[in-house]
Amino acid sequence: MKLRPARPVSRPSTGVPASPGLRAWAWLGAGLLAALPALAQNRNVPADAPPPASAPASSPEEAAAQPEPVNNSLLDAPMFYQLLIGEMEAQAGRGGNAFEVILDAARRSKDSVLFQRAIEIAVQGRSGDRALVAVEAWRATLPGSTEAVRTQVQLLVALERLDELAEPLKLLVEQVPPEERSAVIAGVPRFLGGAHDKAAVLGLSETALAPFVNAEGTRTASRTALGRLALAADQSEKALGLMRRANEDDPSAPGPILLALDLMASQPPAEAVVRAYLARPDALAALRLAYVQALDQRQRIGEAVDQLKLALAQQPETSQAWLTLGAYLVELGEPKEAIKALIRFLDSADVKRDAAERAANAGQQAATTPAVGDDDEDHEDRAQRRIDYAYLLLAQANEQLRQYPEALGWLDKVDPDRSDLALVSRRASLMVHQGQLDAARKLVREAPVRGTLEPRTRVLAESQLLQEGNRWQASYDLLLGAVRAAPEDSVLIYELAMTAEHLKRYDDMEALLRRVITIKPDDAHAYNALGYSLAERNVRLDEAQTLVDKAASLAPDDPFITDSLGWVAFRRGDTASALRLLRQAYNARPHVEVAAHLGEVLWAAGQRDEATRVWREGRSRNGSDNEVLRDTLQRLKASL
């Protein structure tokens, strides 16, 4: 567990200079919180046990930020020698003696720094009882010290002494100025996050925050904090109720919306609160971006794109959002819009500033040694990776538009020192489209790449090239050889099964997928692929239903599995369920094959204008050559 240092208490100036002698000891308390994990692991060890290694001394800036001593009298000779003896005892490993000496000095001087030092000695000696004695003495000596109460709460959490926590936690909130209470309450879930008994933490927090739950200035923060603690305690329904009340208290407050975003996975109704907030004209772009992330986690890429565009309309300077939008649009097969978004990213102020910094650092490196620090190098590396990723996406978007020279031009911009298999595969794919399949295969087999690759990685890349070149039998033969060499590799077996399906070798496909399920019983894609294949061929529909239901239980947010559920429902004659499921899948992931299925169900339901619209949308997303859409239109004798 990691706890933050206690925040210094603001005190009025007395006009008397602080004692330089006592201030010189401020560094001694710096290791207190760093040592708390050891205390939590072993709460009481004999006093004279050798202490663990001390934490490094704080910097002069950190030492200067330590709280002012309450007693500003000069450090006299007896006090100096007492502190010296205490430190000598600590250095000698006699923690019990050191603790008593320093605690006595803290009581006599009424100095917060010395109380902190006494607690640190107890913590380093892994004596929780002594640490609590010191913090109780601190509170008794300085009753108004918020630092003392904050430290007591931290210690009690580290020691799992939760039954004693409600009183100091309540007092901690009461002692801060009224205008700061909401911020302190909002931080309670993080403050108590290290405790293992989440249900007990929730109960004691309800007691501690009871005076603030209905108070006008703190009720929103209190209900949100309790909601977070309830969610941590696996009481999501209770968390949902608290979140809703907090949102009703203040519909513009961001705290309840962030809680609602975290509740979406376990309590889907929480999303309605999020969407209602985002409909407000004063909705924060940062919360919209957080919603985009939540949608991404649920594979609802189509909806994420819509929200991301709205966020960028509010904050067009957010460079990372442009990169994310470009990646989504490439995935959705909207290359023209993707190129616009990616160019906006590359033209953004952030990217240009990073480029200028890299150029400056490169010049500095040429002139002096060393050039930049590790943090600067890490930042530069991350920035360059983002730019290289944009180049790869631009190449892919141009490839979707069949603009192969332009695609190659973007690939040439990628830093050659960063060459990985993704870059090599992209180049190879362009070569296939230009009739150079054999050369492309040789490239992915032999090109040196950065990092260590699993043996199957190059095989899968070469297989993909063969499929792009319409050499499906060759792809099957390549994968079959790889499976024989690695008969337990479920990834290779799955890819071989999908290739067998394309070749209409359905018995082989089914045997291979059942082999995947045996090796990896939680592989949702294997269940889904087998169930969908049965439904597509309109055979053994009960078994197909069982298989796709199993897939959905393993991956409930996967839009392609939702598509399979809808397709099975349609094959079984349940048009209403099919439409509901296929609309859900299409909104989440408007893929051309999902469009083909949704359009067919709409066509069968007599909604032919909407079916035509959906098919046109699907075809516009790089779907003009899609086999499923083409076969659907031919079978239904529908024209676009």
UniProtKB/TrEMBL annotation:
InterPro entries: TPR-like_helical_dom_sf (IPR011990), TPR_rpt (IPR019734). Pfam families: TPR_16. Residues 44-67, 356-380 are annotated as: Disordered. Residues 55-67, 358-371 have a biased composition (Low complexity). This is Tetratricopeptide repeat protein.
